[in-house]
Amino acid sequence: MGLTMPFELISPKLLTEFKEKQISTSTVIDILDSMNAGYALSPEIHAINLSDHYLVAQAYTVCWKMVRKGGDILQLQPSTWSQVSRFLIPELHTGTGLVYVAGAGPLVTHAALAGGMSCTYFEKLGFAGVVLGGAVRDLRELKQLSIPILASNPIPTDTQGAYWVAETGTRCQIEQVTIESGDLIVSDINGTVVVPLELTERLLQQALDIDSTENTMLDKIRRGARLPELITLTGRI
Fold first, then answer.
1. What CATH code is carried by the domain that includes residue 178?
2. Which positions bind Mg(2+) (predicted)?
3. Is 138 annotated for ligand binding?
C-alpha cells in the first residue's frame, strides 16, 4: 500500500463472508451494546449519491481542524493548499479494504470536506467508500460513482482557508465519536456503525451466528410462526 499500515488488518476471509451476508448495522449495534462499546454515527450522515448501499471496511482517517491566526499577524501564513493537501492521503497508493473517514469534531456543514474529483480519486485507489463528518460538493460527479459517499449535506464551498489537515492515518472525531484508523466501519440504509478494532473479530463471528438465527426466525414468521414464542426460544428480536 505504499507504507506499512499502522494497524492490524482484519482477516479478508472473515470480512468477505460478512459482506456477502450483508450483516445489518442493527445486528452490529446490538452486539456492541452487549459489549458496552462502539457507536453509531449521527443519522445526518447518510449516502449522498446512492439510494441503497452496503459498506464494510477498515477506517483510514483524516483529522481536520479549524485554521487559527498565528501570534504574529504580520507574518506570512501557509498557503491554503499546503494546509489541506494531505486530505488526499498521498502516503497511500491503494485503498483496498479501507474506507476513507474524515472529521473535525462538530459536523462541518458549511464547507465541503471532499468533492467530486477527490472522491473519484478515492474510488480509483480502491477505497470501499467515503465517510465525511460534514458536507461534500459536486453532486453530479458523485452520482457517477459506485462507492457510497456518506456526508451530512451538499454545499458548494470548500475548506481552504477555514480548516487544515492536522494528521492522517491516526484518528479523527465526528461529533462525539472518535474513529481510530483500523476500526471497522459498517454502513447500510439504517445508518453507520463504528466497531473498535480490538473487538472486530469477536463481533464478526457473533454477527454471523446471530444472522443465521434471525434468518431462520424470519422464515418461520413468514410461514406463520408466532414471534413472541420465537423470541422466548431464541432470545432474539
1. 3.50.30.40
2. 138
3. yes
